[in-house]
Design brief:
single chain, alpha+beta, 6-stranded antiparallel beta sheet, 35% strand
């Protein structure tokens, strides 16, 4: 009898595999359809806005201005729970769409002011280290 139970279990798992294969074949199709819609909406646009002091910037996913300072590295200002934050973040390219990555930092306005006050000292330390 145990063998018959094993046989039944294996036939059940085989049918489960067939049903999961069907469901996985459907998922990529739906992702592709939504990806096409997302890529047109999430693609960043570059502009050279005179109001920004002539600095080139891009529009992010949520409408924030992104200022590039390195390859796929941006600085932006965003709002979270009613408070402004300065985001320094590395982005990655996902099928032609730039998305924010894990590597980065969000600073409060006070932390940003403190960082700006330290710039001269950091510059001096950088020159001394060369």
């Amino acid at each position: 009898m145990p063998k018959s139970k094993e046989f039944i279990d294996s036939s059940d798992s085989a049918s489960d595999q067939e049903s999961s294969a069907v469901s996985t074949s459907k998922k990529p199709k739906s992702k592709e359809a939504t990806h096409k819609d997302d890529s047109s909406n999430k693609r960043m646009k570059t502009s050279d806005d005179g109001a920004q002091g002539g600095v080139a910037s891009k529009s992010g996913q949520n409408g924030e201005r992104l200022y590039e300072f390195g390859k796929l590295r941006y600085v932006s200002v965003s709002e979270f729970r009613g408070k402004p934050y300065i985001n320094i973040r590395e982005y990655y390219d996902d099928k032609g769409v730039e998305k924010p990555g894990k590597k980065g930092i969000s600073l409060t306005a006070d932390q940003w002011d403190k960082l700006k006050s330290l710039i001269n000292q950091v510059d001096k330390d950088l020159k001394n280290s060369k």
